[in-house]
Amino acid sequence: MNDTPVQDRRFHARRRAGRLLSAGRQQTVRESLAALAALADGPYPLDEPTDRYGDGIVRTLELRTAALLGKPDAAYFPTGTMAQQAALKTWADTHGPVVAMHPLAHPEQHERRAHQVLSGLRSVPLTGAPRQPAAAELAELDEPYDVLMLELPLRDAGFLLPGWDELEALYALAERQGRPVHLDGARLWESAPHFGRSLPEVCARAGSVYVSCYKSLGGHSGALVAGEAEYVRRLKVWRHRYGGSLWQQWPAALAALAGLDRELPRLPGYVAHAKTVAAALAAAPGARVHPEPPHTHQFQFWLPYPAARLEEAGFRQAEEQGVSLFGGWREPGPHPGLSMTEVTVAADAADWSAEQVTEALDAFLALV
Length: 368
Known about the structure:
Elements: H1 5-16, E1 19-20, H2 29-37, H3 57-69, E2 73-77, H4 80-94, E3 98-101, H5 106-109, H6 114-117, E4 122-125, H7 135-139, E5 147-151, H8 164-176, E6 181-185, H9 192-195, H10 199-203, E7 208-212, E8 223-227, H11 229-241, H12 250-262, H13 267-282, E9 288-290, E10 298-303, H14 307-321, E11 323-324, E12 339-344, H15 354-367
Helix pairs in contact: 1-14, 4-11, 13-15, 14-15
Protein name: Putative L-threonine aldolase
EC number: 4.1.2.5
Keywords: Lyase, Pyridoxal phosphate
């Protein structure tokens, strides 16, 4: 069960709600097990032996992901944090331990600085601004770096992506400097529409690409890192050293394959609809949407009320009206007096019109 009374109340309130705008309902163990069992009739290699240390269906997932990203090979990891460490450590073996990354990047903010504490790497900040770095900033770094890491999109800055020309300029500068580029692409799957390019085009000049199996795809867990065959061969050595060579991982691999079939084709539609939802939310008094319009199907939404009041209003609307608009709220700054929630526009939001968003938001604000 959930860890806190707030999480427990949110779980039950969202499950009772008939309509959800952001993200989806959390499943029970029974529901997750039934959904996994339902895949038995799908087009998956289920009559082969269960995987052993990464073969079988896990290998099927690796090769399919590599093809989707335009890379020769990929390696599966049980967690994204492990995948990031192994990817950067593999580059450190041939190039060096200094990684240029944004201070808001996932390894700095959400991995307890494992790249420094466990992997012996050192980070160099690309920029102090809450946005994607520019090639000029990379060129002006006053200390050397060995690997360039770009988070696409940059989640903690608002799921921000660079423009295509900006991304190409970063790639080109790193190439001229002889430095490999690693993409932290936990949410890369939904980034292609912003660039107007295919995923292989986005990834073509990156030496390694990390993607998540459950963010956006709805899998159970896990991540993959794709790259050239020799790089992936060396990457798997670090996967073993970090404890990622598990005896069996077929449930997670099967759920990830289903996510590639079901959710990946829907993501462009989610991205397009997020612009409609964001515009309706931004029209509320004192509201802010960032970025406006959204770069992916996720964005930040700010309102001028304390987080606790917004949380309570959300619970009441779900419990009393059967409508749940948002997840949790927090007051992180940089806008004093405003609280922020992250909005994810996915399948449950697909049939919401702009007028319905406005009506439901008005009802929500009446409860604040």
